[in-house]
Amino acid sequence: xxxxxxxxxxxxxxxxxxxxxxxxxxxxxxxxxxxxxxxxxxxxxxxxxxxxxxxxxxxxxxxxxxxxxxxxxxxxxxxxxxxxxxxxxxxxxxxxxxxxxxxxxxxxxxxxxxxxxxxxxxxxxx
Length: 126
Fold this sequence. Notes:
This protein is an all-alpha fold. It has two domains: about 5-100; about 100-125, no CATH class. Helix content is about 75%, strand content about 0%. The protein contains five helices and no strands. The protein has helices at about 5-25, 25-50, 50-70, 75-95, 115-125. The radius of gyration is 24 Å and the shape is elongated. The two termini are about 15 Å apart.
């Protein structure tokens, strides 16, 4: 199924816009990841520690990590844009495959030759 040139141009423009959003929010994604790692590390050490001073220190470190992660909440838009880019790319890639040609060899039973059908699908997809 072939797309019209107008729809294809809109898809390219949408892809460029989503890529700009991903690149623009990349520092926020890094900050969110570092904040999450810091909070995870501090909470795991907080649970394992037995001394009160260590618990206070790791509790403060966990609060800093959670604050760092929450201050970079804009990364959610970047993650959503990256997910939309990935889904769009996979749909564009699957449009090149003709569904009628996927299983050229017809068999009596659909369940009896799953491995051969899977190989057909895997070879024709790429």
